[in-house]
Design a protein that fits this description.
The protein is globular. Helix 8 packs across helix 9. Strands 1, 2, 3, 4, 5, 6, 8, 9, 10, 11 and 12 form an eleven-stranded mixed β-sheet that branches. The protein contains nine helices and 13 strands. The longest helix has 18 residues. By secondary structure, it is an alpha/beta fold. It has one domain: Spore Coat Polysaccharide Biosynthesis Protein SpsA, Chain A.
Length: 302
């Protein structure tokens, strides 16, 4: 009997470790983001992300060179996503990738964050995002994390250098884009085949969905009900939508003019409104919680 119990608990322990191979994963889709991938990975690894599931959407830049050491170490897994999308319009093939990633990740990770390469999650009180989730969201199945939208700060940053230690100009807290955000989920609690948006996820009926202040969120049909406010007491996302002047002038603006990505009028308006006030939250976070890493980011010794 004793031998059986020892075998049972040993098997249970092995099963648990296999079920939770990762504490915290990030899933994203990327295309020609080579200059920005390293800082994004290094920052999120610093705050506790132990697995990156990256869907490559037809990149033609140096992404393989940048990601190679992370792939070899097992930190990063890249999925080619060159197949014909389920719909001709973005974000249809993005949500299809998210569905694929959720299916791959069930039983593999406790938490999964769905953010883009221009988005950086900040735990507002704890040293790491894992600590933040365990402390404030242990009873939660999904966390809706509000954006704070940043502009170019009017500066040019050479490719490969840190943006989060240099871009400090952002929108007013009350800007309507700061109501929006992205979600961190427990994959087991997502109704995967109902995923329709890169921002929110339809959860099982018993699941609890909270915002960054820990307030419970509710759904109307398959859409989340927001109160029109920015919530970042415990967690938020810095969204560097325009990055620096180089990216804005040479990437975002031409894409908007050609109507490939974004509306030109919205982009020009955002250029003004995302540079209204200063915010150094992420810099203070790094200085206070991870001073050696801050020095490395500042000196681009990532």
């Amino acid at each position: 009997m004793l031998r059986f119990l020892m075998f049972f608990y040993s098997a249970l322990s092995l099963f648990s470790s296999q079920v939770n191979a990762h504490n915290l994963s990030i899933l994203t889709m990327f295309r020609d983001e080579g200059p920005y991938l390293k800082e994004w990975i290094e920052y999120h690894r610093l705050i506790g992300v132990d697995h990156f599931l990256l869907y490559n959407d037809r990149s033609s830049d140096n992404w393989e060179e940048v990601l190679s050491p992370y792939i070899e170490s097992g930190l990063v897994e890249v999925i080619p996503w060159h197949k014909a999308p389920t719909t001709a319009l973005f974000p249809g093939w993005q949500t299809a990738a998210y569905q694929d990633g959720l299916n791959r990740s069930r039983g593999q990770t406790r938490w999964m964050a769905f953010i883009d390469v221009d988005e950086f999650i900040i735990p507002m009180k704890e040293n790491t995002l894992v600590e933040c989730l365990d402390t404030h969201f242990s009873d939660t199945s999904a966390v809706y994390v509000s954006w704070r939208n940043f502009g170019t700060s009017g500066i040019y940053i050479p490719f490969g250098e840190s943006i989060i230690t240099k871009l400090t100009k952002c929108s007013l807290r009350t800007h309507p884009r700061n109501i929006a955000g992205k979600t961190i989920v427990r994959p087991e609690d997502v109704i995967i085949n109902q995923t329709w948006s890169p921002h929110i996820f339809v959860m099982k009926p018993e699941a609890i969905y909270r915002n960054g202040d820990r307030n419970i969120l509710y759904f109307k049909e398959s859409d989340i009900l927001l109160d029109g406010k920015h919530h970042d007491k415990y967690i938020r996302i810095n969204h560097y939508a325009l990055r620096d002047e180089n990216y804005y002038q040479n990437v975002r603006l031409p894409k908007a003019i050609s109507k490939e990505y974004g509306d030109i009028n919205w982009l020009k308006e955002s250029y003004e409104l995302f540079n209204m006030v200063s915010d150094d939250t992420i810099i203070r976070f790094l200085k206070q919680k991870h001073p050696e890493a801050y020095k490395n980011f500042l000196e681009n010794n990532l």
